[in-house]
Amino acid sequence: RSAKVSIQILDQIWKPNTVFINSKAAHIHKSPFKNVFLMIYPNGTVWVNYRVQVKGPCSMDFSAFPMDRQSCHLTLESFSYNNQEVDMQWTNWTDGLSLLKKEIVLPDFVLTNYSTSIERQVGVRESYMFQRESTWFYSDTY
Questions:
Q1: Is the omega angle on the peptide bond into residue 66 within 30 degrees of 0, that is, cis?
Q2: Residue ranges of the Neurotransmitter-gated ion-channel ligand-binding domain (predicted)?
Q3: Based on the number of CB atoms within 10 Å of its own CB, is 128 exposed (0-12), middle (13-18) or buried (19 or more)?
Q4: Is 16 helix (H, G, I), strand (E, B) or coil?
Q5: Dmax over Cα atoms in the chain, in whole Å?
Q6: Could you read off the pLDDT of 10-52 as tens digits, one per residue?
Q7: What is the rounded CA–CA span in Å between residue 116 and residue 42?
Q8: Domain limits at 83?
Q9: Tens digits of per-residue pLDDT, 50-102?
Q10: Torsion over CA of 56, 84, 88 and 43, rounded to 10 degrees?
Q11: CATH number of the domain enclosing 81
């Protein structure tokens, strides 16, 4: 059985200090209070969940515009510890793409693929593939 714990304990426990190393900007939501969920499991596992907004880089390739696809990546690693001290891994997420398609809504792109990988020298990586909605482009242009 797990225990939900007050976030006041958060400052007293060890954390890997996870950062989005390639983000342009990031912040933890604080409306109306800091959005953090903390749970401790009987085996000692600590799960800390932050509600974060991240602006990530996306190198745009317009060579097939308006039928283009764009690939974007976010890489997470520990800011304070190396990969021998922290072993970052993804949890099993059975249907992440379906959930993300509902959550990520863009006016001119559709999320077509999502994947995660473990970068042994760095941390973990999320990859997103977006397909331009060419009908949106044509209706907006003509």
A1: yes
A2: 11-127
A3: buried
A4: coil
A5: 61
A6: 888 888 888 999 999 998 888 887 888 888 888 888 788 888 8
A7: 27
A8: 3-141
A9: 888 899 989 899 999 989 999 999 999 999 998 888 888 887 765 666 667 77
A10: -150
A11: 2.70.170.10
